[in-house]
Design goal:
The complex is a heterodimer. By secondary structure, chain A is mostly helical. Helix content of chain A is 67%, strand content 7%. Chain B is α/β, with parallel strands linked by helices. Chain B is built from 7 helices and 10 strands. The chains are: A mainly alpha, B alpha/beta.
């Protein structure tokens, strides 16, 4: 399975959206903005709104979080980090 | 085709401002190594000018900064520079690094078919965190630096004489090092930044001739 396929294969549901909103609220500082290529820039509140609405950028944000959590759960993230000094 | 670089530097929104400002490091490295580099700046990053410059100078390496989509690379004010099925032949037999969203997924894959060239880019949206306080002077933004400095390593490694594969791997390795450093900092934003760097790490791909050099 390719990485792109994994990203595409994630089907965003309400449970994922709730989880991601909680993660954004807990982790993203209010003073920073996220630039996501052609989707533009957004602060924490805007991220939460996009995720809540489930629009295109909101779905991208959810998929990114889920992909990261799956990488953590599978050990892929830890192995990669451990491979560098 | 001559040994040299065309570097696109659109600068019409925060994202392109950051990409262009951090690209100064690429220009400095090329100058240091005596490699010809033609910057294409701001409103000149349009299809007509781009094609004119490529045809005239014939450089073998193109670095794209800017927005993109699965089948296109864009320049000033989102104007299309390269589009699949229209002028993608311009990428054939060249080294290409596209710091643009998702262009590797379709355009990149197609561009390396029947070609000796190599395409390094992203099949996910390229993203970075930044501090709006520094948007007037992006180079001092230490939140954006780990993203843009590590991605700069693709062209910088090629300028230093490494192969496309080595350049791709060095950039990805630096992303991992930055993730490790940020996680160790234990700041509130550490996991958000690590997550976005991980997104770029997973999204960066190399297609075509991995042994290609500048």
């Amino acid at each position: 399975m390719t990485e792109k396929t994994s990203f595409k294969e994630i089907i965003v549901n309400e449970e994922m959206k709730e989880l991601v909103i909680a993660r954004i609220n807990a982790q993203v500082p209010s003073n920073l903005k996220l630039a996501v290529g052609g989707y533009g820039t957004m602060n924490k509140e805007e991220m939460v709104k996009h995720v809540g609405k489930g629009d295109e950028i909101g779905k991208q944000i959810v998929k990114k979080h889920i992909l990261f959590l799956r990488s953590l759960a599978s050990g892929e993230f830890t192995r990669a980090i451990a491979s560098v000094e | 085709m001559r040994r040299g670089i065309i570097l696109t530097l659109p600068r019409y929104d925060v994202v392109t401002e950051y990409l262009s400002v951090f690209s100064q490091e690429i220009e400095i490295e090329a100058e240091k190594k005596g490699i010809f580099l033609k910057p294409l700046k701001e409103e000149k990053v349009n299809r007509e000018e781009f094609e004119k410059v490529i045809n005239k100078l014939g450089c073998n390496f193109i670095v794209f900064n800017g927005h993109g989509s699965g089948d296109s690379l864009k320049g000033d004010k989102d104007k299309v520079l390269v589009k699949l099925g229209e002028n993608d032949s311009i990428l054939k037999n060249r080294l290409v690094y596209a710091r643009s969203c998702e262009a590797a997924s379709i355009l990149g894959r197609e561009s390396v078919k029947n070609s000796n060239g190599c395409f390094i880019g992203y099949n996910l949206p390229f993203e970075f965190y930044f501090d709006p306080e520094w948007s007037g002077n992006p180079i001092k933004d230490n939140f954006a630096r780990p993203f843009l400095e590590s991605s700069n390593l693709v062209p910088i490694s090629l300028i230093k004489g490494n192969s496309a594969l080595e350049a791709h791997e060095r950039a990805r390795k630096q992303m991992l090092k930055n993730i490790k450093k940020i996680i160790r900092s234990k700041t509130q934003e550490a996991f958000s930044i690590a997550e976005s760097l991980w997104n770029n790490y997973l999204g960066q791909v190399i297609l075509g001739n991995q042994e290609a050099t500048l």
